[in-house]
Design brief:
The protein contains four helices and five strands; from the N terminus they run E-E-H-H-E-E-H-E-H. It is an alpha+beta fold. Strands 1-2-3-4-5 form a five-stranded antiparallel sheet, with helices on both faces.
Length: 124
């Protein structure tokens, strides 16, 4: 668990978080679409399975505020699908999303800073 401010913390997602993670990503997808931007986070069984698999591998994290889960980020140590075979010296961020009701609080920046610190701590 990492505290990224007095009001939120980032913890590894568990399978019980699957629906919440999907809801956050779907909300972000709808918002992107409303802005005329294409989103790759469309709800479908294959996407659900991808997120489930990411959670099982310990790659998905949730952002917890006192009252709710308000964001999600996926941090991977390799990403052959998009980057091919590269040395294991980096972290790859995917699916960073925050509930719209928590926008404007710099959570995205704090999540990226958290991921950077976590990667550094892992020697990446």
């Amino acid at each position: 668990m990492a505290n990224v401010g007095s009001d939120v913390r980032i913890i590894r997602a568990q399978q019980g978080d699957l629906d919440t993670v999907l809801e956050i990503l779907e909300e972000a997808s709808r918002w992107l679409s409303s802005k005329g931007l294409e989103s790759q986070w469309r709800p479908n069984p294959a996407f659900r399975q991808t997120i489930k698999d990411n959670i099982e591998r310990g790659e998905v994290y949730v952002v917890k505020a006192i009252e709710a889960t308000v964001g999600t980020i996926t941090l991977q140590w390799n990403d052959k699908k998009f980057w091919g075979d590269l040395p294991p010296d980096a972290g790859y961020l995917h699916k960073l999303a925050i509930k719209r009701s928590y926008s404007g609080r710099h959570l995205g920046l704090r999540m990226i800073q958290w991921a950077e610190a976590k990667a550094r701590a892992e020697g990446k």
